[in-house]
Amino acid sequence: MLRRLLDSQKKAFEKGGKLERLYPLYEAIDTFLYTPGHVAHRASFVRDGADLKRMMVTVVVAMIPAILFGLYNVGYQANLAVESGTGTLPDNWQTALLQMLGVPFSSADILACAVQGLLYYLPILLVVFAVGGFWEVLFAAVRRHEVNEGFFVTGMLIPMIVPPTIPLWQVAIATSFGIVLGKEVFGGVGFNIFNPALTARAFLFFAYPGQISGNAPWVAVDGYSSATPLALLKEQGMAAVAGSDLWMHSLVGLIPGCIGETSFIAIAIGALILLVTGVASWRIMLGVSLGTLCMALLFNAVGSQTNVMMSLPFHWHIMIGGWAFGTVFMATDPVTSPFSNRGRLLYGILIGVLVMIVRVLNPAYPEGMMLSILLANVFGPLIDHYVVKAHTKKRMARHVA
Asked: Where are the domains of the chain?
Protein backbone atom coordinates (compact mmCIF):
# COMPACT_ATOMS: atom_id res chain seq x y z
CA MET A 1 0.00 0.00 0.00
CA LEU A 2 2.80 2.40 0.90
CA ARG A 3 4.68 1.53 -2.30
CA ARG A 4 1.56 2.21 -4.40
CA LEU A 5 1.00 5.52 -2.60
CA LEU A 6 4.53 6.71 -3.33
CA ASP A 7 4.30 5.60 -6.98
CA SER A 8 0.98 7.40 -7.45
CA GLN A 9 2.45 10.69 -6.23
CA LYS A 10 5.73 10.43 -8.12
CA LYS A 11 4.58 12.30 -11.26
CA ALA A 12 3.77 15.42 -9.26
CA PHE A 13 7.40 15.61 -8.10
CA GLU A 14 9.10 14.70 -11.39
CA LYS A 15 10.24 17.21 -14.00
CA GLY A 16 7.25 19.22 -15.22
CA GLY A 17 5.13 18.34 -12.18
CA LYS A 18 3.52 20.85 -9.86
CA LEU A 19 5.90 19.94 -7.02
CA GLU A 20 9.05 19.55 -9.12
CA ARG A 21 11.16 21.70 -6.79
CA LEU A 22 10.31 19.37 -3.88
CA TYR A 23 11.55 16.24 -5.66
CA PRO A 24 14.53 15.92 -3.22
CA LEU A 25 12.02 15.55 -0.36
CA TYR A 26 10.07 12.87 -2.21
CA GLU A 27 13.25 11.06 -3.23
CA ALA A 28 14.59 11.15 0.34
CA ILE A 29 11.42 9.53 1.72
CA ASP A 30 11.27 6.97 -1.09
CA THR A 31 14.89 5.85 -0.83
CA PHE A 32 14.75 5.84 2.98
CA LEU A 33 11.91 3.33 2.87
CA TYR A 34 12.89 1.33 -0.22
CA THR A 35 15.86 0.45 -2.41
CA PRO A 36 15.98 2.82 -5.43
CA GLY A 37 14.04 1.37 -8.35
CA HIS A 38 16.26 2.69 -11.15
CA VAL A 39 19.36 0.87 -12.38
CA ALA A 40 22.27 1.67 -14.69
CA HIS A 41 21.62 0.82 -18.37
CA ARG A 42 25.17 0.78 -19.69
CA ALA A 43 28.72 0.02 -18.54
CA SER A 44 30.57 0.38 -16.32
CA PHE A 45 28.70 -1.64 -13.71
CA VAL A 46 29.79 -1.79 -10.11
CA ARG A 47 28.04 -4.21 -7.79
CA ASP A 48 28.58 -3.95 -4.05
CA GLY A 49 26.44 -4.80 -1.05
CA ALA A 50 27.73 -1.79 0.89
CA ASP A 51 26.25 1.44 -0.46
CA LEU A 52 26.06 4.78 1.35
CA LYS A 53 22.65 4.03 2.86
CA ARG A 54 23.82 0.73 4.35
CA MET A 55 26.93 2.40 5.76
CA MET A 56 24.88 5.12 7.41
CA VAL A 57 22.40 2.61 8.81
CA THR A 58 25.30 0.58 10.21
CA VAL A 59 26.61 3.65 12.03
CA VAL A 60 23.17 4.27 13.53
CA VAL A 61 22.91 0.62 14.61
CA ALA A 62 26.32 0.95 16.25
CA MET A 63 25.03 3.94 18.23
CA ILE A 64 22.01 2.06 19.62
CA PRO A 65 23.80 0.66 22.73
CA ALA A 66 25.02 4.16 23.68
CA ILE A 67 21.56 5.63 23.01
CA LEU A 68 19.73 3.05 25.12
CA PHE A 69 22.14 3.35 28.01
CA GLY A 70 22.07 7.14 27.71
CA LEU A 71 18.29 7.15 28.11
CA TYR A 72 18.56 5.01 31.22
CA ASN A 73 21.37 7.10 32.71
CA VAL A 74 19.48 10.38 32.31
CA GLY A 75 16.60 9.02 34.41
CA TYR A 76 18.94 7.24 36.81
CA GLN A 77 20.96 10.38 37.59
CA ALA A 78 17.81 12.45 38.12
CA ASN A 79 16.14 9.88 40.40
CA LEU A 80 19.35 9.35 42.33
CA ALA A 81 19.56 13.08 43.05
CA VAL A 82 15.93 13.18 44.20
CA GLU A 83 16.34 10.10 46.42
CA SER A 84 19.43 11.58 48.06
CA GLY A 85 17.48 14.72 48.97
CA THR A 86 19.88 17.03 47.14
CA GLY A 87 17.56 17.74 44.21
CA THR A 88 13.88 18.13 43.43
CA LEU A 89 11.86 17.13 40.40
CA PRO A 90 11.62 19.99 37.90
CA ASP A 91 8.26 21.60 37.26
CA ASN A 92 8.07 20.74 33.57
CA TRP A 93 5.93 18.73 31.18
CA GLN A 94 8.20 15.66 31.48
CA THR A 95 7.58 15.40 35.22
CA ALA A 96 3.85 16.04 34.80
CA LEU A 97 3.55 13.33 32.13
CA LEU A 98 5.51 10.80 34.20
CA GLN A 99 3.26 11.48 37.19
CA MET A 100 0.14 11.17 35.05
CA LEU A 101 1.36 7.82 33.67
CA GLY A 102 2.23 6.63 37.16
CA VAL A 103 5.91 6.05 36.32
CA PRO A 104 7.84 5.67 39.61
CA PHE A 105 10.75 8.04 40.25
CA SER A 106 13.10 5.30 41.39
CA SER A 107 16.74 4.78 40.47
CA ALA A 108 16.23 1.05 41.01
CA ASP A 109 13.55 0.81 38.30
CA ILE A 110 15.42 0.39 34.99
CA LEU A 111 12.36 0.84 32.78
CA ALA A 112 11.17 3.92 34.68
CA CYS A 113 14.60 5.53 34.32
CA ALA A 114 14.66 4.76 30.60
CA VAL A 115 11.21 6.24 30.05
CA GLN A 116 12.20 9.37 31.96
CA GLY A 117 15.35 9.69 29.86
CA LEU A 118 13.36 9.17 26.67
CA LEU A 119 11.16 12.16 27.47
CA TYR A 120 14.29 14.36 27.51
CA TYR A 121 16.04 12.74 24.56
CA LEU A 122 13.09 12.50 22.14
CA PRO A 123 12.28 16.26 21.95
CA ILE A 124 15.95 17.01 21.23
CA LEU A 125 16.00 14.36 18.49
CA LEU A 126 12.78 15.67 16.89
CA VAL A 127 14.03 19.27 16.89
CA VAL A 128 17.33 18.24 15.31
CA PHE A 129 15.62 16.28 12.51
CA ALA A 130 12.95 18.93 11.93
CA VAL A 131 15.39 21.84 11.71
CA GLY A 132 18.20 19.91 10.04
CA GLY A 133 15.80 18.26 7.61
CA PHE A 134 14.44 21.66 6.62
CA TRP A 135 17.91 22.94 5.72
CA GLU A 136 18.85 19.72 3.93
CA VAL A 137 15.73 19.77 1.74
CA LEU A 138 16.04 23.51 1.09
CA PHE A 139 19.64 23.26 -0.13
CA ALA A 140 18.87 20.10 -2.10
CA ALA A 141 15.96 21.83 -3.83
CA VAL A 142 18.03 24.93 -4.67
CA ARG A 143 20.96 22.89 -5.94
CA ARG A 144 18.69 20.32 -7.61
CA HIS A 145 20.29 17.25 -6.11
CA GLU A 146 19.21 14.44 -3.81
CA VAL A 147 19.07 14.64 -0.01
CA ASN A 148 22.09 12.69 1.16
CA GLU A 149 21.81 9.96 3.79
CA GLY A 150 24.68 11.55 5.71
CA PHE A 151 22.27 13.86 7.52
CA PHE A 152 20.62 10.84 9.13
CA VAL A 153 23.82 10.12 11.04
CA THR A 154 24.39 13.81 11.87
CA GLY A 155 20.83 14.00 13.17
CA MET A 156 21.46 11.03 15.45
CA LEU A 157 24.84 12.33 16.67
CA ILE A 158 23.83 15.82 17.80
CA PRO A 159 21.37 14.67 20.54
CA MET A 160 24.07 12.34 21.87
CA ILE A 161 26.62 15.09 22.55
CA VAL A 162 24.43 17.59 24.41
CA PRO A 163 23.15 17.67 28.03
CA PRO A 164 19.59 16.44 28.65
CA THR A 165 18.55 19.82 30.08
CA ILE A 166 19.61 21.93 27.09
CA PRO A 167 16.88 24.35 25.87
CA LEU A 168 15.34 23.17 22.60
CA TRP A 169 15.68 26.59 20.94
CA GLN A 170 19.43 26.35 21.44
CA VAL A 171 19.36 22.90 19.83
CA ALA A 172 17.57 24.40 16.82
CA ILE A 173 20.10 27.23 16.43
CA ALA A 174 23.07 24.90 16.86
CA THR A 175 21.68 22.41 14.33
CA SER A 176 21.20 25.22 11.82
CA PHE A 177 24.76 26.40 12.41
CA GLY A 178 26.19 22.90 12.08
CA ILE A 179 24.29 22.02 8.88
CA VAL A 180 24.52 25.37 7.08
CA LEU A 181 27.93 26.70 8.11
CA GLY A 182 29.53 23.36 8.89
CA LYS A 183 28.50 21.59 5.68
CA GLU A 184 26.30 23.32 3.11
CA VAL A 185 28.46 26.41 2.61
CA PHE A 186 31.25 24.07 1.52
CA GLY A 187 29.02 22.42 -1.07
CA GLY A 188 27.25 19.73 0.96
CA VAL A 189 28.17 16.14 1.77
CA GLY A 190 31.60 15.14 0.53
CA PHE A 191 32.91 18.72 0.40
CA ASN A 192 32.72 19.82 4.03
CA ILE A 193 35.97 19.96 5.97
CA PHE A 194 34.35 20.04 9.42
CA ASN A 195 32.17 17.44 11.10
CA PRO A 196 28.67 19.06 11.17
CA ALA A 197 27.68 17.53 14.51
CA LEU A 198 30.87 18.72 16.18
CA THR A 199 30.44 22.13 14.56
CA ALA A 200 27.01 22.35 16.22
CA ARG A 201 28.52 21.27 19.55
CA ALA A 202 31.31 23.85 19.26
CA PHE A 203 28.75 26.57 18.55
CA LEU A 204 26.82 25.66 21.69
CA PHE A 205 29.95 25.64 23.83
CA PHE A 206 31.09 29.09 22.78
CA ALA A 207 27.67 30.73 22.36
CA TYR A 208 25.89 29.28 25.42
CA PRO A 209 28.58 28.01 27.83
CA GLY A 210 26.18 28.10 30.78
CA GLN A 211 23.92 25.48 29.23
CA ILE A 212 26.65 23.25 27.80
CA SER A 213 29.34 23.23 30.50
CA GLY A 214 29.74 23.49 34.25
CA ASN A 215 27.97 21.33 36.83
CA ALA A 216 24.31 22.25 36.37
CA PRO A 217 23.28 20.92 32.92
CA TRP A 218 23.99 17.24 33.44
CA VAL A 219 21.22 16.14 35.83
CA ALA A 220 17.55 16.80 35.06
CA VAL A 221 16.51 18.05 38.51
CA ASP A 222 16.23 21.42 40.23
CA GLY A 223 18.52 22.70 42.99
CA TYR A 224 21.25 20.16 42.29
CA SER A 225 24.49 20.17 40.37
CA SER A 226 27.04 17.44 39.86
CA ALA A 227 30.48 17.73 38.36
CA THR A 228 31.41 15.29 35.61
CA PRO A 229 34.37 13.00 36.40
CA LEU A 230 36.56 15.00 34.02
CA ALA A 231 35.77 18.28 35.79
CA LEU A 232 36.31 16.63 39.17
CA LEU A 233 39.70 15.27 38.17
CA LYS A 234 40.63 18.59 36.59
CA GLU A 235 40.02 20.36 39.89
CA GLN A 236 41.37 17.87 42.44
CA GLY A 237 43.32 15.20 40.56
CA MET A 238 43.51 11.58 41.68
CA ALA A 239 42.92 12.61 45.30
CA ALA A 240 39.27 13.26 44.38
CA VAL A 241 38.67 9.64 43.40
CA ALA A 242 40.86 7.83 45.91
CA GLY A 243 38.94 4.86 47.31
CA SER A 244 35.91 5.50 45.10
CA ASP A 245 34.31 3.43 42.35
CA LEU A 246 34.35 6.32 39.88
CA TRP A 247 36.50 4.48 37.32
CA MET A 248 34.10 1.51 37.27
CA HIS A 249 31.12 3.87 37.12
CA SER A 250 32.76 5.61 34.14
CA LEU A 251 33.34 2.23 32.49
CA VAL A 252 29.68 1.32 32.86
CA GLY A 253 28.38 4.85 32.34
CA LEU A 254 26.67 5.66 35.64
CA ILE A 255 28.01 9.22 35.73
CA PRO A 256 26.70 12.70 34.81
CA GLY A 257 27.48 13.80 31.26
CA CYS A 258 26.16 14.19 27.74
CA ILE A 259 23.37 11.79 26.82
CA GLY A 260 25.42 9.36 24.74
CA GLU A 261 28.98 9.85 25.98
CA THR A 262 28.99 8.32 29.47
CA SER A 263 29.20 4.53 28.94
CA PHE A 264 32.57 3.26 27.71
CA ILE A 265 31.17 -0.27 27.39
CA ALA A 266 28.21 0.79 25.23
CA ILE A 267 30.49 2.84 22.98
CA ALA A 268 32.97 -0.06 22.76
CA ILE A 269 30.14 -2.31 21.52
CA GLY A 270 29.42 0.27 18.83
CA ALA A 271 33.12 0.36 17.93
CA LEU A 272 33.14 -3.42 17.54
CA ILE A 273 30.16 -3.26 15.16
CA LEU A 274 31.84 -0.58 13.04
CA LEU A 275 35.14 -2.45 12.91
CA VAL A 276 33.65 -5.86 12.09
CA THR A 277 31.54 -4.39 9.28
CA GLY A 278 34.50 -2.36 7.99
CA VAL A 279 32.54 0.90 8.12
CA ALA A 280 34.99 2.72 10.42
CA SER A 281 38.75 2.88 10.14
CA TRP A 282 40.64 0.94 12.81
CA ARG A 283 43.72 2.98 11.94
CA ILE A 284 42.07 6.19 13.15
CA MET A 285 40.93 4.57 16.42
CA LEU A 286 44.38 3.08 16.93
CA GLY A 287 46.05 6.39 16.13
CA VAL A 288 43.93 8.30 18.68
CA SER A 289 44.74 5.66 21.31
CA LEU A 290 48.48 5.78 20.53
CA GLY A 291 48.59 9.58 20.58
CA THR A 292 46.75 9.70 23.90
CA LEU A 293 48.92 6.96 25.43
CA CYS A 294 52.22 8.55 24.41
CA MET A 295 51.23 11.98 25.69
CA ALA A 296 49.86 10.53 28.93
CA LEU A 297 53.15 8.70 29.56
CA LEU A 298 55.10 11.86 28.74
CA PHE A 299 53.07 14.04 31.10
CA ASN A 300 53.21 11.38 33.84
CA ALA A 301 57.00 11.25 33.50
CA VAL A 302 57.38 15.04 33.65
CA GLY A 303 54.93 15.54 36.52
CA SER A 304 53.89 18.81 38.15
CA GLN A 305 53.22 20.17 41.61
CA THR A 306 50.61 22.62 40.38
CA ASN A 307 48.89 20.78 37.51
CA VAL A 308 47.12 17.66 38.82
CA MET A 309 46.20 16.55 35.30
CA MET A 310 49.88 15.85 34.55
CA SER A 311 49.71 12.78 36.80
CA LEU A 312 46.44 11.39 35.40
CA PRO A 313 47.16 7.96 33.86
CA PHE A 314 46.09 6.80 30.41
CA HIS A 315 43.34 4.45 31.64
CA TRP A 316 41.55 7.44 33.18
CA HIS A 317 41.80 9.65 30.11
CA ILE A 318 40.02 7.15 27.87
CA MET A 319 37.17 6.74 30.35
CA ILE A 320 36.25 10.34 31.00
CA GLY A 321 34.76 13.11 28.89
CA GLY A 322 34.00 12.59 25.23
CA TRP A 323 37.18 10.64 24.41
CA ALA A 324 35.54 7.29 23.64
CA PHE A 325 32.53 8.69 21.76
CA GLY A 326 34.70 11.09 19.78
CA THR A 327 37.20 8.38 18.86
CA VAL A 328 34.55 5.93 17.64
CA PHE A 329 31.86 8.09 16.04
CA MET A 330 33.41 11.50 15.30
CA ALA A 331 37.06 11.00 14.39
CA THR A 332 36.16 8.17 11.97
CA ASP A 333 33.84 10.35 9.87
CA PRO A 334 34.84 9.30 6.31
CA VAL A 335 34.23 12.76 4.82
CA THR A 336 36.35 14.85 7.17
CA SER A 337 39.13 12.31 7.78
CA PRO A 338 42.00 11.43 5.39
CA PHE A 339 41.44 8.82 2.67
CA SER A 340 44.90 7.22 2.75
CA ASN A 341 45.63 4.44 5.25
CA ARG A 342 48.85 6.01 6.52
CA GLY A 343 47.13 9.38 6.63
CA ARG A 344 44.36 7.96 8.82
CA LEU A 345 46.87 6.65 11.33
CA LEU A 346 48.70 10.00 11.45
CA TYR A 347 45.36 11.80 11.67
CA GLY A 348 44.34 9.69 14.68
CA ILE A 349 47.69 10.29 16.39
CA LEU A 350 47.27 14.03 15.86
CA ILE A 351 43.86 13.93 17.55
CA GLY A 352 45.25 11.94 20.49
CA VAL A 353 48.13 14.40 20.97
CA LEU A 354 45.88 17.46 20.69
CA VAL A 355 43.26 16.18 23.12
CA MET A 356 45.94 15.66 25.77
CA ILE A 357 47.48 19.08 25.20
CA VAL A 358 44.09 20.78 25.57
CA ARG A 359 42.98 18.71 28.55
CA VAL A 360 46.19 18.83 30.53
CA LEU A 361 47.73 22.20 29.68
CA ASN A 362 44.62 24.38 29.40
CA PRO A 363 43.29 25.13 32.91
CA ALA A 364 40.13 26.84 31.64
CA TYR A 365 38.91 24.08 29.35
CA PRO A 366 38.33 20.63 30.92
CA GLU A 367 37.41 18.75 27.75
CA GLY A 368 39.51 18.55 24.59
CA MET A 369 38.06 15.96 22.24
CA MET A 370 35.71 18.25 20.35
CA LEU A 371 38.32 20.90 19.56
CA SER A 372 40.96 18.28 18.79
CA ILE A 373 38.85 16.60 16.13
CA LEU A 374 37.81 19.91 14.58
CA LEU A 375 41.44 21.05 14.43
CA ALA A 376 42.47 17.72 12.93
CA ASN A 377 39.70 18.11 10.32
CA VAL A 378 41.58 21.15 9.03
CA PHE A 379 44.79 19.17 8.62
CA GLY A 380 43.16 16.11 7.02
CA PRO A 381 43.68 17.22 3.38
CA LEU A 382 47.22 18.36 4.17
CA ILE A 383 48.08 14.97 5.67
CA ASP A 384 46.75 13.22 2.55
CA HIS A 385 48.73 15.58 0.32
CA TYR A 386 52.05 14.71 1.92
CA VAL A 387 51.24 11.00 2.18
CA VAL A 388 50.49 10.88 -1.55
CA LYS A 389 53.57 12.97 -2.28
CA ALA A 390 55.73 10.55 -0.29
CA HIS A 391 54.23 7.56 -2.15
CA THR A 392 54.86 9.23 -5.50
CA LYS A 393 58.46 10.03 -4.58
CA LYS A 394 59.08 6.44 -3.51
CA ARG A 395 57.59 5.02 -6.71
CA MET A 396 59.63 7.41 -8.84
CA ALA A 397 62.79 6.30 -7.04
CA ARG A 398 61.98 2.65 -7.75
CA HIS A 399 61.27 3.48 -11.41
CA VAL A 400 64.61 5.25 -11.78
CA ALA A 401 66.43 2.37 -10.12
From this structure: 2-33, 52-212, 280-400
